[in-house]
Amino acid sequence: MQIIRDIATLHRAVTALKQGRKSVALVPTMGALHAGHLSLVRMARRVADHVVVSIFVNPTQFGPNEDYAAYPRDEARDAALLVEEGVGLLWAPDVATMYPAGHGTHIEVAELGADYCGAARPGHFDGVATVVAKLFNQVRPDVAIFGEKDWQQLAIIRRMARDLDFALDILGAPIARDPDGLALSSRNAYLSKEQRGAAAAFPDALKTAAKAIAGGADVAASLAAAETAIVAGGFDSVDYVALADAASLERLTTFREPARLLAAARIGKTRLIDNYPVGG
Ligand SMILES: Nc1ncnc2c1ncn2[C@@H]1O[C@H](COP(=O)(O)OP(=O)(O)OP(=O)(O)O)[C@@H](O)[C@H]1O
Ligand SMILES: CC(C)(CO)[C@@H](O)C(=O)[O-]
Ligand code: BAL
């Protein structure tokens, strides 16, 4: 596997990969790879001739009091996992390569970024959209794969690709979960043993609410019951539990399909997100 850190070498390598009309799939990540990331890589291998994975912990999507410095980084371990998966190219620029001195242009995400994680993390989705647009321009993939765990992020990137005429396909990959239901996330590494034991209360509460709402239960009461169950299960607070239109992300007060239950909650210093489909 080639590990590339500068843009000129990347362009040469991607041009070589694309020879003979071969297709390229990009899997953007922030590293600290787990089985969820590897499921994205496997999807990429199924849909394209070559897979490029990027690892870049993007400072512009972290707020000033968030975990940019503490975010887990272990490139050697990540690279070994990607070699096992048959990945040919790892794009791993440093911050000065991604944002050279004088970098002064960014993408602003409008309404899709206002609610949910966007409300809790001001500027977060502007940072995500900007770096993802840069990754698309750097790698020029035919297809890019993102996880459904970050449902709002996936919706925002689909909209950005459409609004800004990026000529590529965006694919969403299903959420990979631990056996107790907790969605895999690099941030799960922050959890103490006790917190990890409690964390399954989060997906459990969401699954229960999704089932109730699909079965005709009152939406507001089901969302409130989920919040109560998450805190009773050991979480310190709930950022939001909301029923949303699965595509437009508009908040729904009554159930109609396609809908998605979206949530974020905090346990100790760790903020976890998750989501479930509601109905078919
Ligand atoms: N459990 C999962 N199932 C499917 N996709 C996932 C899962 N976890 C992460 N991804 C996807 O992997 C890609 C890279 O995500 P990222 O590197 O931020 O990992 P993460 O585990 O989501 O970390 P974080 O703890 O920052 O949320 C994103 O498209 C994300 O949606
Ligand atoms: C898409 C992404 C790699 C952009 O930094 C990040 O937000 C992530 O890992 O989900
Ligand atoms: N997985 C989304 C990246 C972030 O939380 O910053």
UniProtKB/TrEMBL annotation:
* Binding-site residues, ATP: 30-37, 147-150, 176, 184-187
Annotated residues for binding of beta-alanine: 61
Cleaved signal peptide residues: none
- Give the main localization category: cytoplasm
**One CC-aspect GO term:** cytosol
Checking InterPro entries in the record gives: Cyt_trans-like, Pantoate_ligase, Pantoate_ligase_C, Rossmann-like_a/b/a_fold
Entry's Gene Ontology BP terms: pantothenate biosynthetic process
Binding positions ((R)-pantoate): 61, 153
Q: Could you list this entry's UniProt keywords, alphabetically sorted.
A: ATP-binding, Cytoplasm, Ligase, Nucleotide-binding, Pantothenate biosynthesis
Active-site residues annotated for this sequence: 37
Which GO MF terms does the UniProt record name?
ATP binding; pantoate-beta-alanine ligase activity
Catalytic activity, as annotated: (R)-pantoate + beta-alanine + ATP = (R)-pantothenate + AMP + diphosphate + H(+)
Q: What is its EC number?
A: 6.3.2.1
- Kindly tell me the pathway this chain contributes to: Cofactor biosynthesis; (R)-pantothenate biosynthesis; (R)-pantothenate from (R)-pantoate and beta-alanine: step 1/1
Where, subcellularly, is it found?
Cytoplasm
HAMAP family per the UniProt record, alphabetical: PanC
Q: How does it assemble?
A: Homodimer.
The function of this protein is: Catalyzes the condensation of pantoate with beta-alanine in an ATP-dependent reaction via a pantoyl-adenylate intermediate.
What family does this belong to?
Belongs to the pantothenate synthetase family.
Q: What else is known?
A: The reaction proceeds by a bi uni uni bi ping pong mechanism.
Protein name, UniProt field? Pantothenate synthetase
This chain's source organism reads Sphingopyxis macrogoltabida (Sphingomonas macrogoltabidus)
Name of the coding gene: panC
